Amino acid sequence: LSQTKPLAAVLKDVCDAWNLPNAERYALQYADGRQTYITESNRKDIKNGSILRLTTSPDQEAEQLYIGIQSKNVDVKTDSLKKLASLCQDIAFAREFINRNGLKQIYLIVEEGKDAGEMLAHTLKAFTELMEHDFVSWKNLSPVFINKIVSYVNMNAVDTSIQQLSLSLLENMVPTNRDLFDLVKKDVTLDRLLTHLQATNAQLQLKAMALLIALLLNTTNAERQDMLDYLREKNIRQFIHKNIIHSSEPLGDEMAHYLYVLQSVSLNLCEQRMKMSMDPYSQEQRDLLQSLRQTAFESESEVPAGTFSTERRRSLCAKEFRKLGFMNNSNPAEDLRRAPPGLLALDNMVYFSRNTPNAFSRFVLENSSREDKHECPFARSSIQLTLILCEILHIGEPCSETAQAFYPMFFGQDHFFEELFCICIQLVNKTWKEMRATQEDFDKVMQVVREQITRTLSLRPTSLELFKTRVNALNYSEILKLRQTERLHQEETLAVPVLQLREKLKPELLELIRQQRLLHLCEGTLFRKISSRRRQDKLWYCRLSPNHKVLHYGDVEEGVQSPPIESLPEKIPVADMKMLLVGKECPHTKEKSSGKQNKDVLELAFSIVHDVEEYCLNFIAPTRYEFCLWTDGLNVLLGKEMTSERTQTDLDVLLSMELKLRLLDLENINIPDRPPPIPKPPSNLNFCYDFSHAEQ
Q1: Which of 629, 455, 450 is nearest to 542 (CA)?
Q2: CB 517, CB 548: distance < 8 Å
Q3: Which residues belong to any copy of the ELMO domain (predicted)?
Q4: Residue range 124-145: average pLDDT?
Q5: Which has the closest alpha carbon to 227: 258, 205, 194, 196?
Q6: CB-CB neighbours of 146 under 10 Å
Q7: For the chain, how far is it from start to end, CA to CA, in angstroms?
Q8: Are the C-beta atoms of 401 and 602 separated by less than 8 Å?
Q9: Treating both helix axes as pointing N-terminal to C-terminal, what angle do 624-637 and 496-523 enclose, rounded to 10 degrees?
C-alpha cells in the first residue's frame, strides 16, 4: 500500500487488477481484530504487516443495512440488525448510517415495540454504539423512546440482556442533561434499581449499580442526602456487605470502583458540617454544646436554678467546660470556630456522649481526677481527631475516576464515621495513658494515634469490631517497636562501608528489577478505555512478546484474564517506539482536562509515541503499581533509566535484604567509619621461606 497515493487511487488500482467496476463502491478494511474501515484520516495508523481486505464501502453497507432493518422478512431484519450492531463501532460506517437518517429507523423499531428478544437486543446494542461516537446529542431523544427504554428496566418479563442494555443507555443519558436526569430519576425508582441489584445475574447487578452511581453523582447535595437516606432505610448497606463484598464470586474491578464511589459520596455528606464554623448565636448549636456538659456532669448540674447567682453559675459552667477539655472554657464555641473540622467535631462529641454514655462519662471523669498537666483534654482531642479522620478518609475530596480502594467495614456499619470516631477517641485516651503524656505532648499523642489508625486501616479489616481489636492491640509500645525497627534498619545502613557496599550491589539489583519489569510486560495487563461520559465496557489487553521485540495489543471482552498473543491483532515493534509520555504530556489527558477530574487519571496516564510523533498508543493504568511497572518496563525497552517511585522502593527492599544477608556475621559488631590503617612494611623480608633449598 503506497501511503503517498490518495485512497481513491489505491482502490481504483486494486479494482482494475480484479476487473471490478465502480471502484467508489469499495473500501479497504482491516482483515483482523476490529475490522475498521481505512479512511484518509486513519490510514496513518496502519502498521507494517497489517493485512487489509477489499470490502463494500461504508456508504454502500449503510445503504443496504438501512433497507435491511426495514424489511418485512424477520430473518433479513434480524441479520441486518445483528450486522448493524457490529458495524456501528466503526466511526466511518456510523457517520454514513446516521447521515441516511438511520437513527430514525432505530427509534421507530424501539417506539413501535413490536420486536422483542434477540432483534430488540441488537437494536439497542446498535443504538448504544452509534451514540458512543457523539454525532448526535442525547437531548434529541423523544420522550416515547426514553419511556420505552425505561419500561424495559421496569418490566419483569424482559430478557436480561435487554435490561442490561437499557440500564446502560440510561446510565449514559443521566450525566448529559438535567431534564433527562429528572426523567430517569422519576421513572426508574430506587426500589426498582434495588430489585436489579439483588439479581443473581452479575452483569445485571453491575449495570444497576452503574445507573445508581450515575444518579448519585449527578444530583444536588439535598437530593443525594434523601437518596442515601432512603437506601439506608432499605438496608442496601447490609445487602452489599453480605451479597456483593462477601459473595462467593470474586469482586470485579468495575464493581469495586462503584463501591468506592458509593463510600466516597456517602462520606462526603459530612463535608458541609466539616466546613461550617460554630455560630455562637445559634441556639441549636449552643444547646448541643450544653447537652455535652450536662451529660458529663449530670448530678452537679441538677442544682436548682435559684441556688447560685448568675456569676457563680457562669463560673461553674466554665469550670465544667475546662474539665471537658475545651481550651477556651469561658466561651467554648471559640474552639469550634476552626473549619475544618467545624461542627463535625461537635456532632461527633454529641454522638459519643449519647450513644456510649458510660464510655463518655468514664473518659471525662477519669481525666477530671488526674493531675492538671496529665489530663487528656476530651474536646481538644475530639476536634483534632475529627480532622485526622477527615484527612485519612478523604472527606471533601472529589471522587477518583479509577480508584477501587473502599473499606469493606464501611458497608458493615450504620453511622460509620461516628462509630469510627467513638472507637478512636477511646484509643486517644488509652494511648495518652500509655505515653504518660502531659498537655505539652498533645501533638505527639495525636501523631501516634494517626499512625495507629492508618496502620490498622491498611490491613483492610472487614468490620469495625475487627478494627477495634486490631487498633487497640497496636499500643504505644508496639508503635515504638515498629519505629525502632525502622530506625535501626536506617542507622545500620548509613555506615560508610555499608554505603559503599550498597553502591557496589546496586547495578546487579537494578538489572534484576529490569528483568522483573520486562517479565511483567510479557505477562501483560488489562487496561480500560475511559471515555468522556463513562468509565466502563471498553477493555483492551497489552503484552510484550517473549523476545522483547513487539508489543501486542487488542480489545478483549470482560472476564478474559490472560489472552494469548495470537488473539491480540494490533502490534507495535519495539524498534519503532520513540519515547514515553506520562501525565499531562499525554495526548489523551490534554483532550479531556477538566478541573477536578482527573487528578487520578493524570497520575495513571502514559503514552507510547511510535513511528512519527503524531502516532500514540494511550494507556490509563488500572493502579499506580501497574503504572510504575509499565513505565519502568517501557523505559527499559527504550534504553532509558527506570524513573518510577516503585523502582526506588524495590531497590531499597532488595538492597536491605542483600545487606542483611552479607552482614549477618557482623551482628552486634560496630562497623568503623574508616578502614583500619595499613601497617608499615617490615624492615626485612628474611622470614620468607626459600623454596630453592627444598628443591635441592
Answers
A1: 629
A2: no
A3: 284-457
A4: 88
A5: 194
A6: 19
A7: 87
A8: no
A9: 90
CA distance 1 to 148: 48
Q: Helix, strand or coil for residue 553?
A: strand
Q: Which of 146-155, 261-270, 594-603 has the lowest mean pLDDT?
A: 594-603
Query: What share of the chain has pLDDT > 90, as a percent?
Result: 35
The pLDDT of residue 457 is: 93
Question: Residue 243 belongs to what H/E stretch?
Answer: none
DSSP state of 667: T
Q: Report the alpha-carbon distance of residue 370 to residue 430 in Å, rounded.
A: 14
Buried b (16+ CB within 10 A) or exposed e, 617-632: bbbbbbebebbbbbbb
Q: 190-197 and 221-233 are packed helices; what angle lies between their axes, rounded to 10 degrees?
A: 50
Q: Which of 95 and 529 is assigned the larger pLDDT?
A: 95
Share of the chain above pLDDT 70, in %: 92
Whole-model pTM?
Answer: 0.75
Beta bridge partners of 550: 573
616, burial (CB in 10 Å: exposed 0-12, middle 13-18, buried 19+): middle
Residue ranges and CATH numbers for the domains of the chain are 1-47 (no CATH), 48-274 (1.25.10.10), 275-296+313-488 (no CATH), 506-648 (2.30.29.30)
Q: Bin 101: left if φ > 0, else alpha if -120 < ψ < 50, else beta.
A: left
Question: Each residue of 350-383: pLDDT tens digit?
Answer: 999 999 999 998 998 888 777 667 888 999 999 9
* Residue 453 reports pLDDT greater than 70: yes
The pLDDT of residue 492: 59
pLDDT at site 555: 86
User: Following DSSP, what letter does each residue of 7-53 receive, concatenated?
Assistant: HHHHHHHHHHHTT-S-GGGEEEEESSTT-PBP-TTTGGGPPTT--EE
